[in-house]
Amino acid sequence: MTADSGDNSAANRVRMGRPGAAGAGRGRFGLTGTSQNFDPRVVAIRPDLADIAVAGTHFAPHYAAPMMRSGILPVATLRAAPSADADQTSELLFGEGFALLDLTGGWAWGYCLADHYVGYLAADALAAPIAPTHRVHMTEAMLHGAPDAASGGPAVLPRGALVMGEVEGEWLATSHGYLPLASLAEVGAREPDPAGLAEQMIGAPYLWGGRTVKGIDCSGLVQLVWAAAGVQLPRDSDLQLASLGAEPTIDAAQLARGDLVFFPGHVGIMTDHRTIVHASRRWKAVHSEPLADVIARSAAKGHEMPVTGIKRLS
Questions:
Q1: CB-based contacts of 56: which residues, under 8 Å, 6+ apart?
Q2: Distance (Å, rounded) from C-alpha 235 to C-alpha 89?
Q3: Interatomic CA distance for residues 176 and 199, integer angstroms
């Protein structure tokens, strides 16, 4: 699946640059005070360009108004720099929104709408925005060429992918093919047991910046299963902890299925009061094990507070 040539041409015609360049009636921008510190993971600022939303608080030579796009590949790698060799930082799933700020040399720079995570995508990973009607609920879903389980298909979409289509019997007809309704949930429907979704991911390989069963990291796993429960979390574990305001203490006797447990630089989800599922660098996979073992390893690394917080899905 790729964006059509007309769509890419339209994107290239929009060369974001200095304020006011896109048309008349737009005023000048200025700082209201001293330029503030920022987290480059979630604030879109480069030495030459910044999101127009930060014009009043951060200085940049030029500002850009984002153009809304959607992912058109099953999974697109978000990178730290415009190079296929640059570090992977996250992934954009099919149908997810992306705020495009610059398009140069085959690379799109901007941020993922779900979590505001900033980075670079291959330009052909994006197309016109969609208004999703369903999301993939199963670990993966085959996109078929016809409403027939025996038909081949152009792609396999991961859990969390967003699609737009019309229901035709037991199928959802989209512009790219047919998806079985059994693998989908309507947008807005909430999964009552995110821990169960995490358990379905056990054995998935560990991948820094990954968000699918083909490769996932600790915060990606938590973000994915909580999104299915209707709670959109930031991308990284420290940002998740800060957004949730988790308590800095833990009482194992009060832990329950679905609780999140945070460690320095790590997070997992409880399946009962003793067992945690997490995407683990140690195990190089999504793994289930006693929480006490993870706490002991964290303490052995010299962390004075091996557990930094817990949070219950409400």
A1: 29, 30, 31, 32
A2: 9
A3: 30
